[in-house]
Amino acid sequence: MIILLLMTAIAQEPTEIEHDNRADRLYKTFCVSCHGERNEKTPYLVDNTAEEKTKAIKRGKESMPGYSWLLSDTDIADLISYMDNLKTE
């Protein structure tokens, strides 16, 4: 019974709050030095599609390195959502 409970807990999807906290940590670790605390520095094009933003994060763009080796698709999607919210606040 205990094993079943542990397996269920492990298999559960992270909550929205956990996604937000992870995106915040990722942003502060990899993005804040160039994009600023509120995503106000280096150009971040909110109007670009999610596909264009994903491509830029995975492959890099201009002086920004690519992070495909480090970030999962879920991490990237959460990070894009987080950055869009910072930019529009």
Write the layout of secondary structure elements.
Layout: H1 2-11, H2 16-35, H3 50-59, H4 73-88
Question: Summary?
Answer:
The chain has 89 residues and is mostly helical.
Protein described:
This protein has 89 residues and is mostly helical. It has helices spanning 2-11, 16-35, 50-59, 73-88. The protein has one domain: Cytochrome c-like domain (Cytochrome Bc1 Complex, Chain D, domain 2). Helix content is 63%, strand content 0%. The longest helix has 20 residues, at 16-35.
H and E string: HHHH
What share of residues is helical?
A: 55-70%
Class from secondary-structure proportions: mainly alpha
Which spans of ≥5 residues are poorly predicted at pLDDT below 50? 2-12
> What is the CATH class name?
Mainly Alpha
Overall number of structural domains = 1
What is the gyration radius calculated from CA atoms?
Answer: 15 Å
Please supply descriptive tags for the structure shown above.
89 residues, mainly alpha, Cytochrome Bc1 Complex, Chain D, domain 2, 4 helices
